[in-house]
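Need tokens for this chain, all 424 residues.
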Amino acid sequence: MLHAIKKGSGGRQTADMSRAIEACVHCGFCLPTCPTYVALGEEMNSPRGRIFLMKETLEGRLTADEVKPFIDQCLGCLACETSCPSGVSYGELITPYRAWSEPKLTRGWLERARRALLLQTLPYPRRFRAALALARLARPFRSWMPARMRPLIDLIPERVPPADPLPEIIPARGPRRGRVALLTGCAQQVLAPGVNRATVRVLAENGVETVIPRAQGCCGALAMHVGEQNAALGAARRNLLAFPNDVDAIITNAAGCGSGLHEYGLLFHGLPEEETARAFAARTLDVSVYLDRLGLVPPPAGLDLKVAYHDACHLGHAQSVRNEPRHLLSQIGGVQVLEPAEWEICCGSAGTYNLEHPELADTLGRRKAENLVATQADVIATGNIGCMMQVRRHLQLLGRQVPVLHIVELLARAYESGEGRKIT
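Here are the structure tokens for all 424 residues:
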């Protein structure tokens, strides 16, 4: 019974998980929006199935190892929260459960090595850039590698842009309307530094001064979502100290990072920093939300494009941000915003998911790419680096050369001179 969870070890953490479990009435509304259930058709790979498994584990009737395959296959996309009529806070269950169960799990040496490699590389831009260079050298030897390590080679992009560091302060153009601090992200700095450059350009055009805190680091979402709570706490504490208080907002331009910052209150639940963490999370806004609230200065140049907008899960589901990006895109002259089918289904990127579960991630990536192609868009826009890389890869596998850009990149180009410039 659930009262056993509340009285058992884990105290406040397990009591909070029990409340999320009790809220689920097993109605099944989440099933058609859950990507793993849609792809696999298995009850235990659905949100209500996983809730049942977590409940059984917390009550001692199953072991963490027995339910591990089903919990690990959850993308954490939170589409189930969007579709749930009972308001089950699945995100407040799956993340603490992973932290609770991680010390209890038996993982093989290869799995531990792969996780350690990702956690010690991806959150650090210099290490990540160096690792990509080494991985490209290792490509000829892919067939000699263990099968579980090959996705690390397969997903390496053909080209990595040169580093593009930003100054500590980017002034507003014209009268100042606001002042913000930007989280520059980890993988995004390496894979698509132009997103940060476009972000500060668009903010400046809208009269916003941007501060780039030098002491900032990874948001901690990667560690948080794989159950490495201590690593996540360390990253979060660094950012709590790094970001200034004299700004209107903390801006994110990667949905996964923004969602990670919004989870700081959950991460520090019951710890001395909880109040500070919750205040920090409350100040965090996606760049699209900030610009929409501020009131976008209409770009002087039109682009004459059909743009399919792809909802990143950690914007559309985790942060309930859907209207703002569409509203911004619609204010670019000549842009027609198109809606792909199955917007609610994850593309399969989900942090490191496409590295840890490549076959299922590929199934979802192809499905997403096909739905986007069906719109006959000239350009695909989104708000998350992981989605950009995943969708771009699966479009290429389909033989479709459709550009995939961040919404701020489209806005930045609209502010540039040269109306009708080709998007590449």
